[in-house]
């Protein structure tokens, strides 16, 4: 039982990242009909927003500390963050410690701006082009962004820790009535799952209960009719591209303590996120979320030692095997609209 619960938790953790990225991908495909292979790069840029803010908060100047000496007996030079001068050492240290959560506020306007610029500057020219053209140009854009990140931040991973309050693990065993210390799970991974659920609920609520969202959903169903009503649906779709970029970026921001950012992390998630979208159903937002969590749980159970010993390498291919099975039996995906991908 403890192994079962632990694998469910691992699956929900992985599924949170898959679902968030796939949700943004589906928003773009559902509104604009664009296959965006640069979406993984948006996830990566979100992670590096957290890295950038962390570096900005730790900018410092050098002072001479007369109370401390080096091995030669000379007064020691120490680096003091500017935040200590502005807010005091205690509050300044707390702000630096909470750099990752604060990066949410930092990343939202940046990622929306990047999304709008990307859509207006490049994607709009490929609306009526074949999907192959869209894939090539967005994949090329992803490579360019990846190399820019590599140039400015280097090729190595950049540790970006969670706040000290969330370093450690939670004892699930004691909570669910199993022996204590049997099911230990990191606090930040739980936070990431809860954050993902909050973002997903926010996106669905925005689309379902706001006038803007209702118009967008109508435009997704029948773009021409909505345009004939005098509504500038293109502008709304541009904003939705920005929202989709922000969703991917926020997924990256909160993922940094789990997996230290590096320049190729976007590519690592890109293929998997497209598999999730295909399994869930192209253009289906609920399908993308459902498939993200289902595939995350499947991948988690496939990583069990007993399963790997029985079928070596199954943990590396289980997601793709499921995708093949879905495409063969239900080409439109689990929750895709009838006729989509079935021609």
TrEMBL record:
MF (Gene Ontology): transmembrane transporter activity
InterPro entries on file: ABC_transp_permease (IPR001851), BCAA_transport_permease (IPR052157)
Domain of life: Bacteria
Alphabetical GO biological process terms: amino acid transport
TM regions (residue ranges): 16-35, 42-64, 98-123, 191-216, 236-257, 269-298, 310-328
GO CC annotation terms, alphabetical: plasma membrane
Recorded topology in the membrane: Multi-pass membrane protein
Pfam families referenced in this protein's UniProt entry, alphabetically: BPD_transp_2
Location in the cell: Cell membrane
Chief localization: membrane
Alphabetical list of PANTHER family matching this protein: ABC TRANSPORTER ATP-BINDING PROTEIN, BRANCHED-CHAIN AMINO ACID TRANSPORT SYSTEM PERMEASE PROTEIN LIVH
Family per record: Belongs to the binding-protein-dependent transport system permease family. LivHM subfamily.
Protein name: LIV-I protein H
Gene name per UniProt: livH_2
């Amino acid at each position: 039982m403890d192994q079962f619960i632990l694998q469910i938790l691992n699956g929900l953790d992985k599924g949170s990242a898959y679902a968030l990225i796939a949700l943004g991908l589906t928003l773009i495909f559902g509104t604009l009909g664009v296959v965006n292979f640069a979406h993984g790069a948006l996830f990566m840029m979100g992670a590096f927003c957290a890295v950038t803010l962390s570096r900005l908060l730790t900018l410092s100047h050098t002072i001479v500390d007369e109370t401390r000496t080096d091995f030669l007996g000379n007064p020691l030079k120490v680096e003091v963050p500017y935040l200590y001068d502005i807010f005091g050492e205690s509050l300044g240290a707390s702000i630096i410690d909470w750099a990752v959560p604060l990066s949410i506020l930092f990343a939202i306007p940046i990622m929306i701006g990047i999304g709008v610029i990307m859509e207006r500057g490049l994607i709009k020219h490929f609306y009526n082009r074949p999907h192959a053209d869209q894939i090539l140009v967005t994949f090329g854009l992803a490579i360019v962004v990846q190399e820019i990140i590599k140039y400015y931040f280097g090729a190595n991973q950049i540790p970006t820790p969670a706040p000290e309050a969330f370093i450690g693990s939670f004892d699930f065993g004691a909570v669910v009535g199993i022996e204590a210390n049997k099911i230990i799970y990191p606090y930040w991974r739980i936070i990431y799952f809860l954050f993902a659920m909050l973002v997903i609920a926010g996106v669905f609520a925005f689309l379902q209960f706001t006038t803007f969202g209702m118009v967008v959903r109508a435009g997704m169903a029948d773009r021409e009719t909505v345009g004939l009503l005098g509504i500038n649906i293109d502008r709304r779709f541009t904003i939705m591209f920005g929202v989709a970029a922000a969703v991917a970026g926020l997924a990256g921001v909160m993922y940094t303590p789990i997996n230290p950012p590096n320049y190729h992390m976007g590519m690592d998630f890109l293929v998997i996120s497209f598999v999730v979208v295909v399994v869930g159903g192209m253009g289906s937002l609920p399908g993308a979320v459902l498939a993200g969590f289902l595939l995350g749980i499947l991948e988690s159970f496939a990583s069990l030692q007993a399963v790997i010993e029985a079928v070596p390498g199954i943990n590396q291919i289980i997601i793709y095997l499921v995708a093949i099975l879905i495409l063969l039996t239900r080409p439109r995906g689990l929750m895709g609209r009838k006729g989509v991908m079935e021609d």
